[in-house]
Design brief:
The complex is a heterodimer of chains A (474) and B (762). Chain A has 474 residues and is α+β, with helices and mostly antiparallel strands. Chain A contains 18 helices and 18 strands. Helix content of chain A is 32%, strand content 20%. Chain B has 762 residues and is an alpha+beta fold. The chains are: A alpha+beta (474), B alpha+beta (762).
């Protein structure tokens, strides 16, 4: 990278405009269509090899891939010019029409190809949830994904080659000893270095995955202050478990962060799956979503319900704060100048806990919630002993439904109580009307999510989710 | 080998998957090229009090263009000349282009746009159909079409219903946004690379804007990254603006719209409102129908006339409407000017009649399929309200076959059982037919040309007036030529559509591109083949009936030689190996004034059975299964046809379920990117899907007896909407007509379920 490239140059811009590798396309410049998907190889110390992950190049700033291996659609042909199995499967299944989205699909499937020898239909759907195609009905793309594993190994980019020590060593050789620093951008390599850097320049913007900050540049054309990138801070890239909590560092990706949360709370699996898309989850961080503080962020309601805590640091001083107290008003947070988020601690599971994370949106995959709910109840002997309920999309911040909680605590765990709790939501929230849903719809749905929770945890209501009907007799 | 039929792959597939396929944005530019961006109106309606561009003009390397810089006509509207390239004085929608800036980079141009200061004097804005109807605000005169005695028959009908059908619009969401590159040539000429379905219109409008004639402008398009109708008239704006700046700067200019600008600035599918009154008997047979259609056209006419005409014509779908009156209002609103979109008004017309049929069925407590059958065209009931005779009974046979193959009746019983037993998740099923008229309703567009070269080494270069937007047109037409010349498909290369090769082309639209360009290319191939046959006869002294073209070889009696050798020999004998081909559709005629005639060469039919599950707590839906039977005649390419059917169906599903266009009270579109506008993803393709081709040859003499396939499958998605409605009805008392509006978003579904029978509070 040369110094005359602005640090907010996206990987996509650099590929297309500077390197003239035009196979990678811009479809939306916001990480929502997948036409720009590329694969990044990064050293994974746990695996002892290079891990390859799909990311959106359209919102990824160029300096943040320093030291990583960038694989684009042009990289995949074998040395003899033969197509990679992923590419050949798409050709053979007639899975391209206009072809503009195709490079992105190729790269999402390529990342899957390296990870799994024989992916299931569900795994293919999951891998493709961030790629839009407007021509096909996706059926041929899904089939290509399901069958690409049956092709003979390629001459280039086989699984074995990707996992080889040569690739690992090649990437290791690129590792920096000291922080990358270019005008307007630095990437400290330790927590102390980071704390010092932020303290010195409180006007700087702390950058993690950039899946939101990227849009400030590509959509809002904002001039950003100097960027301090946390993605190279080893201490922040770890997930730790102790007796009390799962502690997720600020630079842990959404993918890994949600894995850790779902490892403790399997009920949140669907929420995790519906959060963004694999490329977004591979770049973005869980703590970034929390720090961003959007009223429609999907991680907050469940984590507030679970009594998650933040660790914040400023210079050498750290403090802890319940997550719900972090949000003080629309886009206002309890965060001092020079202070940054170190980690989020999610308490370990307690016996008797009943938990759900619900998301309602126009589309199942990769959409933004109209309403998102985190519901955590302690129910013993038919009575509610504790209730923490938080919603997204219902107020200017992710917020507790305290009136509904008050109805629940101490009451019998039955339909009548749930009706009273649902009615109490009107005292908790006056949601706004916007493109994602009207105020009345949001309030009605929030109440219905309490009813759904009750139906799933006790009431004999029959199937509660549409997926149950997929198994119904045809 | 027979090059037609079968399933050869898309001619660019290997380029798509390797990133080597070049789209307009990938074409290397001359070193002095500039990149442009539009500045546009921030308000829906008002006068521009001041356009202050001084902050831009101070910057170096910037070129700014406004209406004053248009050397010719400041217009890109093809019908009424009511679409300014750059608005001046009056702005008529939020997103309307006012000026453009060219700079050294795309980002620099976009940033420069922000430095402009525009002051408006706001004027009252009409933003939706009801407001336009109240104000009698129309872009074109209303159209009335009636037959029989609808009023009298309605009065006499044993049963009557009235209702309103709400149908949303749709953004095309082609993955490749609008783009054009204008490269000044010598002597005042201009070369345009445009992502367009209509190169000839781009050529004409660029010429008009520059004050030049058509022969000064060449438009090329190798491929589009999707079109769907959105690149029929809209690319003329982009190309004309690029040409105006390129002319002013005397430098090449690329104008690529970012996604948000594209969605704010360019037209979409018309949303419709329909108020109806229907009379019918106990069997559900319609005896009288009165419908008032109203669509949101936006601020200008664009293609709203023919779009709304097609809605009127397709209001029958598959049903005989003996006594009918249709009034069609084309509403002028201060929103983006709506345009062509796959189906071109047909889908909205069909949605109206299918809603009416469903209402009748629910009112009578009958299966909707029974009511549909009672109304199908049949013997003695086979003339449409616009005077065209429905000559075949193919749709009846298809519906019978599909109902049997999909086990429709049995599944309906299963679903009734499920719905009786389950409170929260309801299921629904619907079978809906499609009968779609094929031909441009403007008869003059039903013509096409082709240019075919055989080089002296026997290779073939094909060019025609159609454009490739992913639909596989280039592949199909190449198959036609390969078949005629007895060559492998690989021997035919198709080149970029180019107005300097084939002139006066029609848009690649109306599903007709293969019908038209395939026939034109066939004519060219037949001309060359005839010359080669004659030469072979001269060489070998055989009669022409003994010359055969097969597998890349030509045999004449006992003689045989490669096609290449024959081409070489013909060249040496000074025989022309280049030919044009031309085709015009026969049999069609249309009186626009009386709305009577035979506008369509034939009908392409289809039917689908969809089954859904509805979450009555949240309104979320899941498409569980679909069974499709589509009439494609004798398929030229089964893989491409299957792709069109599946893709068209799912695009229709998006239109009717998740794709919601949402405007603020001030008339600004808030859903202008994929983060806010939700087209289907892979998960929305149902796990259980059966798509079959009904392979009966076209009774009309189309190219190899095939049928058009581009638009008709979109309307198969109406089955999904009615399956949702069916599931919602499963929450209600018999006879209820769920007030479901399209798109059936979770909010729309929950509203239709209503409080009275929302689940969960038993």
């Amino acid at each position: 990278m040369t110094a005359d490239v602005a640090p907010t140059t996206t990987v996509l811009e650099y590929l297309r405009d500077t390197l003239r590798r035009t196979g990678t396309k811009e479809g939306c410049a916001e990480g929502d269509c997948g036409a720009c998907t590329v694969v990044l190889g990064e050293l994974d110390p746990d695996l002892g090899r290079v891990a390859y992950k799909a990311v959106n190049s359209c919102i990824r700033f160029l300096p943040t891939i320093d030291g990583a291996e960038l694989v684009t659609v042009e990289s995949l042909r074998g040395s003899d010019g033969s197509l990679h199995p992923v590419q050949q499967a798409i050709v053979d299944h007639h899975a391209s029409q206009c072809g503009f989205c195709t490079p992105g699909f190729v790269m999402s499937l390529f990342a899957l190809y390296l990870r799994l020898e024989q992916p299931s239909r569900e795994q293919v759907l999951e891998a493709l949830s961030g790629n839009l195609c407007r021509c096909t009905g996706y059926r041929p793309l899904i089939e290509a994904g399901c069958r690409m594993g049956a092709y003979a190994p390629p001459t280039g980019w086989s699984r074995a080659q990707a996992a080889s020590s040569e690739r690992r060593e090649a990437l290791k050789a690129l590792c920096r000893e000291r922080a990358l620093e270019v005008p307007g951008f630095c990437a400290p390599r330790s927590l102390d270095e980071l704390a010092a850097a932020i303290n010195e320049r409180p006007e700087a913007l702390v950058l993690a995955g950039g899946t939101d900050v990227g849009l400030w540049v590509t959509k809002q054309l904002r001039d950003l202050p100097p960027l301090i990138y946390i993605g190279e801070v080893a201490e922040l890239k770890r997930v730790r478990r102790n007796g009390a909590a799962v502690v997720i560092g600020a630079a842990v990706s959404l993918a890994d962060g949600w894995d850790a949360v779902v490892g403790e709370y399997a009920e949140l699996g669907e929420l995790a799956q519906r959060f963004g898309s694999p490329p977004v989850r591979n770049s973005g961080t869980l703590c970034g979503n929390l720090a961003n503080g959007s009223p429609i962020g999907d991680s907050m309601p469940a984590l507030i319900a679970l009594e998650a805590e933040l660790e914040l640091r400023r210079g050498g001083v750290t403090r802890r704060l319940p997550l719900e107290d972090f949000y003080r008003g629309y886009q206002r947070k309890d965060l001092a100048p020079g202070e940054f988020l170190v980690s989020v601690s999610v308490p370990r599971r307690r016996p008797g806990l009943r938990l759900a994370g619900y998301k309602v949106s126009k589309r199942f995959d990769q959409d933004i919630s109209a309403v998102c709910a985190g519901i955590a109840l302690q129910v013993e002997s038919g009575r509610v002993h504790g209730a923490r309920i938080a919603f997204g999309g219902m107020a200017a911040i992710p917020a507790r439904a305290r009136a509904a909680e008050r109805v629940l605590v101490g009451a019998a765990w039955d339909g009548e109580t749930i009706e009273r709790a649902a009615a109490a939501l009107a005292a908790d929230f006056q949601p706004l009307s916007d493109l994602r849903g009207g105020s009345a719809y949001r309030l009605q749905t929030a109440g219905n999510l309490l009813r759904r929770f009750h139906a799933e945890h006790g009431a004999d209501a029959g199937p509660v989710r549409t997926a149950a009907a997929t198994a119904a007799p045809a | 080998m027979n090059a037609v039929g079968g399933a050869p792959r898309h001619d660019s597939a290997h380029l798509h998957v390797s990133g080597e396929a070049l789209y307009a944005d990938d074409i290397p530019l001359p070193a002095n090229a500039l990149h442009a961006a539009f500045g546009f109106s921030g308000i829906a309606h008002g006068r521009i009090r001041e356009l202050d561009l001084t902050a831009l003009q101070g910057q170096t390397a910037l070129v700014v263009a406004t209406a004053a810089d248009v050397p010719g006509e400041n217009n890109y509207g093809s019908t009424l000349h009511d679409d300014p390239i750059f608005a001046s004085g009056l702005v008529q929608y939020a997103g309307q282009p006012i000026f453009a800036v060219a700079a050294a980079s795309h980002a620099a141009a976009r940033r420069a746009v922000r430095a402009a200061r525009i002051e408006y004097e706001p004027l009252p804005a009409i933003l939706d159909i009801r407001a336009a109807l109240a104000a009698q605000s129309y872009v074109l005169p209303s159209v009335h079409l009636s037959r029989g005695q609808p009023q009298d028959c309605l009065a006499l009908a044993r049963q009557r219903l009235a209702g309103t059908v709400h149908i949303g619009g749709q953004d095309h969401f082609y993955l490749e946004g609008q783009i054009a590159i204008a490269v000044p040539q010598e002597d005042g000429s201009m070369l345009i690379h445009s992502s367009t379905q209509h190169p000839s219109e781009v050529q004409q409008i660029v010429a008009n804007a520059l004050g030049k004639r058509a022969h000064h402008v060449t438009v090329q398009c190798r491929r589009m990254g999707g079109g769907f109708g959105g690149k029929e008239t809209q690319p003329a704006l982009i190309a004309a603006a690029a040409a105006v700046i390129a002319h002013k700067a005397a430098r090449p200019v690329k104008l690529r719209l970012d996604r948000d600008t594209d969605m704010l600035m360019t037209g979409k599918r018309h949303d419709f409102l329909a108020d109806y009154e229907v009379g019918f008997d106990e069997a559900g047979r319609i005896s009288a129908l009165l419908v008032t259609l109203a669509s949101r056209c936006g601020y200008s006419a664009d293609l709203s006339g023919p779009v709304n005409d097609r809605a009127v014509m397709h209001l029958d779908n598959a049903y005989f409407l003996e006594h009918v009156q249709i009034v069609s209002h084309r509403c002028r609103t201060h929103t983006v000017s709506n345009t062509a979109f796959r189906g071109f008004g047909g889908p909205q017309g069909m949605m109206v009649i299918e809603a009416i049929i469903d209402d009748i069925a629910r009112a009578l407590g009958m299966d909707a399929l029974t009511v549909r059958r009672a109304n199908f065209y049949g013997p003695g009931r086979n003339v449409t309200h616009y005077g065209q005779t429905v000559e075949e009974d193919i749709l009846l046979r298809m519906v019978d076959q599909l109902a049997a193959d999909s086990r429709y009746a049995e599944r309906r019983r299963d679903i009734a059982g499920w719905n009786a037993a389950n409170r929260i998740i309801k299921r629904g099923i619907a079978l809906t037919p499609v009968k779609f008229g094929i031909s441009f309703t403007a008869t003059l567009f039903n013509q096409a040309g082709a240019l075919l070269h055989v080089y002296s080494d026997g290779t073939v270069l094909l060019n025609h007036g159609g454009t490739e937007m992913g639909q596989g047109l280039f592949t199909k037409v190449a198959q036609v030529v390969a078949c005629e010349l007895g060559l492998p498909l690989s021997a035919i290369r198709v080149t970029a559509t180019d107005t300097s090769k084939v002139p006066n082309t029609s848009a690649s639209a109306a599903s007709a591109s293969t019908d038209l360009n395939g026939m034109a290319a066939l004519a060219a191939a037949q001309t060359i083949r005839a010359r080669l046959v004659q030469h072979a006869c001269d060489m070998f002294g055989v009669a022409s009936g003994h010359v055969r073209f097969e597998d890349g070889r030509v045999s004449a009696g006992e003689h045989s030689m490669s096609f290449a050798d024959l081409a070489t020999a013909a060249y040496r004998a000074r025989i022309s190996l280049s030919a044009t081909g031309y085709y015009r559709t026969p049999k069609i005629e249309w009186n626009k004034t009386t709305m009577q005639g035979r506008p369509f060469y034939y009908f392409a039919c289809g039917a689908a059975v969809s089954e859904v599950a509805v979450d009555t707590l949240t309104g979320e839906i899941q498409l569980l299964a679909v069974d499709i039977l589509q009439d494609v005649g004798s398929s030229l390419n089964t893989a491409i046809d299957l792709g069109q059917i599946e893709g068209g169906f799912l695009q229709g599903v998006g239109w009717l379920t998740s794709e919601e266009l949402w405007w603020t009270a001030a008339g600004e579109l808030a859903t202008h990117a994929p983060s806010t506008y939700k087209i289907p993803t892979a998960r929305d393709w149902p796990a259980r899907a059966s798509v079959r081709l009904f392979g009966e040859p076209n009774r009309e003499h189309t190219i190899h007896r095939s049928k058009a396939v581009g638009e008709p499958p979109l309307m198969l998605a109406i089955s999904v909407f009615h399956a949702v409605r069916d599931a919602i009805a499963g929450c209600a008392a018999a006879g209820a007509r769920p007030p479901l509006t399209a798109p059936a978003t979770p909010e729309s579904v929950l509203r239709a379920i209503g409080n009275s029978f929302a689940a969960g509070r038993a």
